[in-house]
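Re: the request from the purification team.
They wanted to know what the chain is likely to look like in 3D before they choose a buffer screen. I agreed to run a prediction and write the result into the notebook, where they can find it.
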Amino acid sequence: MSIISLLFIVFFLFTLISGGYYFFVERPKMVNKINPNLIQLQTDGFDFILYKGKIKELVSDYRRYLADMDIVIYSNSLFVGFLDPKYAYVKLPAKAIQSIKYEPNKLTLHCFQEIAGASRIVIKGNSTKQLFYIAKKLDFIIKRSKKVKVI
């Protein structure tokens, strides 16, 4: 083998390795930096999960629950309760929520009492950023459920 063919093989291998590194490692990192507002949809087998987190207090009409409960916002419903033993304090479809009122320390949901069982639900979270994020996600599913479907 001559030195020119050996250099060509080394150059070819180096180009192949650096190109693979760029396309499989660096490029996905850049795509995530460019589009930070994209929602990574997760599924638990039934519906897409838009948000999963913890809240510290729930007030439903005249009942008050003080615990670190799980909150899961699906693409068409809201779950508040405990996921581990699967116990729901509030399980609402998106069409049951009439409006949302965001305040820095709480989030108030006005609901149709016939569907939800309660006319007003108050959620208190761990931070104002978390409550704002929950309000945006709930507003998204409410607007989506109110769209008229044309068949």
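For the purification team: The CA atoms of residues 3 and 9 lie 10 Å apart.
Please add any questions underneath this entry.
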